[in-house]
Amino acid sequence: MTTVTTMPLHGDWTVDDLDALPDDGLRYELVDGVLLVSPSPLLPHQVGQSNLMVALATAAPHAFRVLGAPLDIGLSPTRQLQPDVVVIPRGPLTPKVQDLPLLVVEVLSPSTRATDLTLKRYVLEQAGVPSYWLLDPEVPSLTVLELRDGAYVEVARAEGQQPLTVQRPFPVTLVPAELVA
What is the pTM of this model? Predict the structure, then answer.
């Protein structure tokens, strides 16, 4: 039997509307009641995401969890994102993420680059996520943004074989070229 995803004809989307959709393999995100739909990521994206998750999980103290998409991060009744990688405080396992992520990472892809660089940055900044990283497999590069006085500021960037050491949310050294190899 085939599952058909139906979309409401009018009105704003809510997180409850997303929860009612069947799992059809697409990534559904919600910003201010507007539905964003993305296809499955390509191989360079997946390699970068997987390698970054392993590197972060290896460096993470026990007080943190490193998780990857698909994972819904509800920010309000009309805002829900599925970041590529998140770091959250370790707490009791609940059906949904209860705490605001300490770190959100997006791996740039041709189909999501503009959204990741602008819209998601803005939404996460407004939500108060302390750190937002962008991994670009094409360069390769890793850009680190941190929240300062309510706005993201670029605090570090590395390309290729250049190592990058960060302290938030915990100390870790990463090499962009190794993350996408």
Answer: 0.88
